[in-house]
Structures are given as C-alpha cells and as structure tokens.
Design goal:
The protein has two domains: 196 residues, 3-Layer(aba) Sandwich (Rossmann fold); 261 residues, NAD(P)-binding Rossmann-like Domain (Rossmann fold), CATH 3.40.50. It is built from 20 helices and 14 strands. The strands form three sheets. It has a six-stranded parallel β-sheet, sandwiched between helices. A six-stranded parallel β-sheet has the order 11-10-9-12-13-14. A two-stranded parallel sheet has the order 7-8. The protein is elongated. About 3% of the residues have low confidence. Bound molecules: uridine-5'-diphosphate-xylopyranose (UDX).
Amino acid sequence: MKIAVMGTGHVGLVTSVALASLGHRVVGTDVDGEKISLLKRGACPFYEPGLEEALRREMSAGRLAFTPEESDALRDAEAIFICVGTPARSNGEANLVAMESSARAIARHARDGVVVIEKSTVPAGTAERVRDTLARERSGFTFDVASNPEFLREGTALHDALEPDRIVIGVESGRARDVLRRLYGPLTERGHLLIETDIATAELAKHASNAFLALKISFANALARVCERAGADITAVAGIMGTDPRIGRAFLNAGLGYGGYCFPKDLIALERLAARLGYEFPLLREVERLNDEAVQVAAAKIEEVLWNLEDKRIALLGLSFKPGTDDVRLSPALALAGRLLSAGARVIGFDPRALANAKQELPELEVAGDAYEAARDAHCLVLATEWDEFGALDLDALREVMAYPIVVDARNALDPARCAAAGFAYYPMGRPPVLPDPSSASLAEGRREALVPTPEELTR
Ligand code: UDX
C-alpha cells in the first residue's frame, strides 16, 4: 500500500521504517528540511537502536523515501499517518497547531478516498477537529479519519512497532477499517492482537495507558519513602506485589521517576482534557507532584550523605531520561543535576549516548569521556540512568580515583553487595543503605580508614 507519513520524529520515523519493512511503500515528509536532508542520506537524526540500519535497508530496497515537499508525499497516498509533535502548552493542554496544519496540507494535496490516520498522541475529540478541518478546507473532499495510537518506547521502538502487544485502531467507517486491517495484515497474520474500537476510545486509551504507567511509577516512589522509614526494601516489596497478576511487576521501579517526551505531557494533557470536559481528576496532579518529589528526595539524600553540597564534586552517571536513548527531554537525571548545581556542587556527567544533548540542555554541567573520568576526585558517585554498561563498571577502579567512597544509586540498579565489597558506602532509594564492613579482612588497611570520611574530609 502507498503510505505517507507526516512528521519524522521518534514516532513518525519508526512508523515509516516499520511500515516499509512490512512491505508497504512509504514516503516520509517533515517541515524541518534539515531533518529530511539527513534522512535522504540514510542518517537518523536521533539515536534509536537498530533504526539507522533498518532505515538504510528499506531505502535501498526502494520501499522508503523522504521528501521536504508535502505535496509529493501526499499526492498518491492511500493512507496518511499524522505523526507530528503535540507538545504541552504552558497550561498543560496539548498544542495541536501542527495537527491542524497537517490536516490543511492533506486537504490541499491528498487524493479523494484517502484514509487519514492520527498516530500522534492527541486528546480525545481531536479526530473530529481533523475531520472538520479537512471538510472545511476542500469542498467535496472524500476521506476517512481514523486513530491508531502508538505505544512505542524509546530504546526499543522498532521492536515495539514490529512486535506490538496490541494494535489499536479507532475506525468509524468500513473503508478505514479495511485500509487499517490491510496495513497491519502482516502483523495480524503472525498472531498480533488487533483491537478495533471507536475513535474517541482509541484516542483516550493512549492517554490512559501512559497516565496509568506514570501512576505506577509514582506509587512505587511514594512507597519507597515509606520503605525507607520502615526499614523495608522497595525492590522486594515491588517484587512481591508483582507476583500478583492483577498488579504486575513492570513500572514499579522506584528511583528518580519518569521523564521523556511522553509521560509528563500526556499525564497533564489527560488531566486538562478531563477538566475541560467537566471532570476534576486531581489524582493525576498528585502523580506529577510525586514524580517531582522523587528528584528532590534524591538531591536531599546526596546532601545528607555529603553534609554540604557547596564545592563538592559529584559524578553523575547517566543523563538521558532512560537507558537506550540520547533523549534528554525532561530527563530526571538532568533535573537532579540542576538541583545539585544550584546548591553549589560541581557536577561531572557521563552518558554513553546523551552527552552532547545534555550539555546543550544544561550548559553548566561538566562532562567526562567515561565513567572513570567523571569519578576522578568525586566526593560522591550518583547513578541517575540505569544504562546496562554501568552494571559492569570496575568498582575498585572507580573507588581508587574518587575522593570519598560514596555511591548514591538513584535507580536501584547497582549490586549493593558488590559496591560494599569494593569499599563503597552504598545509598539506594527506598532500600536500606549498605555500608562496608570496616573489619572485613578483604579490605586493605589504608582503605579501611578512607571508608568513613573524617570531619576534615567532609568539610574539604
Ligand atoms: C512511553 C510509553 O511506555 C510508550 O508506550 C509510549 O508510546 C511513549 O511513552 P518512553 O517515554 O519511551 O515510552 O519510556 P518508558 O520506557 O515508558 O519510560 C518512561 C520513564 O519512566 C523513563 O524516564 C523511565 O526511566 C521511567 N520509569 C519506568 C521508572 O522510573 N520506573 C519504572 O518502573 C519504569
């Protein structure tokens, strides 16, 4: 099938590559000409595992192309996916300006009988607006509107697109249903679940899913505060809760909370939508408050351990909003860095992929070429984003270069026993700290002294 994709951000580009690899002929377009020039050369404008290789493969196979000209992309398409950004306005509502201008471009250029599919996350009711715009902009235009929300996670986006848990389609006409069934035929034939529903339900299901996942994370973070006070272990508590299939273990990892482009904005957009429809949903505001609190708690923990933050050197490992991406948008790691910097600390960050983006977002942040360089002379090492490679760090080597042997594991991702064995005082979130045993025979005599900072060291 001939498909046009409007918007080549995370959602649009992954959708384009995935649909091409299902055998469709896809043309992507974007108002950002620079992005299109990059893509035409087979280069991905952001890091997403496996995407660039798949992009090049589909382009050389002749199934995928890009153009800056909307008219070229839209003219022959049987189906058009709108994947443009829907950022938050200052009041939290979704900004749908790009949705409207996409609809106008479709009315100008698309052929009759086209199916227009919104994939961007939009408030329920947006499809009606798209439909009104299409009809108003071109009299006699025949088209159908459908909703097909994405559930892609950054870092595993291509896999999520090609091996989805479910494909949700909101359709209100036979033609839209047929087109979407044909589009996803290669996946449903392989047994992937396709759920057909009405458009408003499909739109709302996306906001509801993201808000509920955010709620699980904030619940775990609030529970972590109780665990800290009760001497319990949030990881073990979440593990026990997770064995109940009604609850599930996923998204109960306490730590620094959620960030990224989706959760923060979708949660508030749902709260605003509900309010606009006359229903107050304060639970969602509370989820957001608890998420902000998670960063404050981590900052307070670091301060508590170091006594004063002024002039302390803090090595911050992980800067992206989650592992597997170079995306730093609303990254909790950067929010933490910002707090530490404004309290007078020096923060030296390292991230396997997101260094350049982090430096651009937070210029006061110092950056290092690797974890060991970041840790040199540091008074505290903070794990802020749980990249796999941080689990394989040589803890003895880190300990050797640091001023104080202190680790704050803000993602509960390191092995407490390994940290303690390497001579670190280990402070996780919502779990009891693990302090090295000063009498342990495995510790060198000189090092034993360094385990507990002297008052002089603490004021250094
Ligand atoms: C999310 C949704 O998962 C996806 O379905 C939707 O389409 C887009 O938004 P993404 O933003 O890529 O995907 O990240 P996700 O893996 O969901 O994680 C979001 C944030 O929550 C990250 O900052 C992550 O570190 C945090 N998180 C996740 C936790 O703090 N604890 C957890 O237990 C899980």
